[in-house]
UniProtKB/TrEMBL annotation:
Cofactor(s) needed for function: Mn(2+); Mg(2+)
Keywords: Lyase, Manganese, Metal-binding, NAD, Oxidoreductase
Native species: Nitrincola lacisaponensis
SMART domains, per database record: Iso_dh
PANTHER family in the record: D-MALATE DEHYDROGENASE [DECARBOXYLATING]
Protein name per its UniProtKB record: D-malate dehydrogenase (decarboxylating)
Length: 352
């Protein structure tokens, strides 16, 4: 089977980990007889912005619309472009214009990875964060008045729609229903954010009536964060608004050792638009150029892409290779090793 894939490395370590994902994909696609027709793209990067004054060409949407998926590295180079410009000019455009309303982020503690939480072993932590990805707290609605004076007032609205909230809740319930524990945690804050969050609770209760076999557990975001650290084994699927989900999905991977392992899928589940697969981490300017970034988050994201395209066996083979290398090494410095990005990528590709 042939799939059209847009490959966008972006900035910083995005440019270092992407080649390792392509290496692993090449190996696994050869083994499973999958053809990927790749389009390599240098825009959606701060280099492009520096040259053109914009993050992407005007016709970016038509250029990407007939792709089966987008594989994305990371965007952001704060020394040359402010983060809100680089992010809103690229990734957030993709998420919104392509209606990638699910941001799925697996959190798993692997064998061979030192866990920062005392007494946890592989298998204890294995859950999915489902983040709403198109609305909520991330809006451009608001403004400043009396700017720069003592009377300065700043307003930024959150926008939740019934369509947007119900569809992410339904997706999370469906996911929980397919898993053995059938447990769904809702991140809420209905005690403090007294309009939108009680409404989220209500929407969850209503959607829950369609899923009698799934157990719904509502937790305020503050204690929920604490429990990610103290009792990570109690989570199975966690559903959250855009902001809460963003925070939880960095905290989760941090509890499993390193953000360098965490993948994500930005999904338009109906397939009307291409979905986008990217590591959770950013461009890591502090380590860029040394070839020491952990490539696993990127490679696992490529595996999620294969799974979403229906190539489950290829996904499983990739994940197995990742698991094996995490046990045997080589390991990058964030995993306590001394290997390079390339060493680890080559080892994973060779196992396939
Ligand atoms: P970051 O994720 O780039 O880095 C945070 C810390 O984790 C750094 O110390 C970094 O060295 C480390 N790290 C990240 N990925 C790693 C890997 N694969 N292996 C080993 N260590 C790794 O987040 P930060 O520093 O807040 O942001 C840097 C830039 O990235 C900013 O411009 C930001 O806007 C952008 N960013 C982009 C994202 C995206 O493209 N989806 C997501 C997060 C940040
Ligand atoms: Mg984030």
């Amino acid at each position: 089977k042939t799939y059209k894939i847009a490959v966008i490395p972006g900035d910083g370590i995005g440019k270092e980990v992407m080649p390792e994902a392509l290496r692993a994909l090449s190996a696994v696609c050869q083994r499973f007889d999958i053809l990927l027709e790749m389009t390599h793209i240098d825009w959606a990067s701060c280099d492009y912005y520096t040259q053109h004054g914009t993050m992407m060409p005007d016709d970016w949407k038509t250029r990407l619309a007939d792709m089966d998926a987008i594989l994305f590295g990371a965007v952001g180079w704060p020394d040359s472009v402010p983060d809100h410009i680089s992010l809103w000019g690229s990734l957030l455009q993709f998420r919104r214009e392509f209606d990638q309303y699910i941001n799925l982020r697996p959190v798993r503690l692997f064998e061979g990875v030192p866990c920062p939480l005392a007494g946890r072993k592989a298998g204890d932590i294995d859950f999915l964060v489902v983040r709403e990805n198109t609305e909520g707290e991330y809006t451009n609605l608001g403004g400043r008045i009396f700017a720069g004076t003592e009377r300065e007032v700043v307003i930024q609205e959150s926008v939740f729609t019934r369509l947007g909230t119900d569809r992410v809740l339904k997706y999370a319930f469906e996911l929980a229903k397919q898993r053995s524990r059938k447990h769904l945690t809702l991140a809420t804050k209905s005690n403090g954010i007294a309009i939108s969050m009680p409404w989220w609770d209500e929407r969850a209760d209503e959607v829950a009536t369609g899923y009698p076999d799934v157990q719904l557990d509502k937790q305020h975001i503050d204690i929920l964060s604490a429990r990610f650290v103290l009792q990570p084994d109690r989570f199975d699927v966690v559903v959250a608004s855009n902001l809460f989900g963003d925070i939880l999905s960095d905290l989760g991977p941090a509890c499993t050792g390193t953000i360098g392992l965490a993948p994500s899928a930005n999904l338009n589940p109906e397939g009307r638009f291409p979905s986008l697969f990217e590591p959770v981490h950013g461009s890591a300017p502090d380590i860029y150029g040394r070839n020491i970034a952990n490539p696993v988050a990127m490679i696992w994201s490529a595996a999620l892409m294969l799974k979403f395209l229906g190539e489950t066996a290829a996904h499983d083979a990739l994940l197995h290779a990742i698991e094996t290398v995490l046990v045997q090494g080589p390991r990058t410095p964030d995993l306590g090793g001394q290997a390079s990005t390339t060493d680890m990528g080559v080892a994973i590709a060779q196992l396939i």
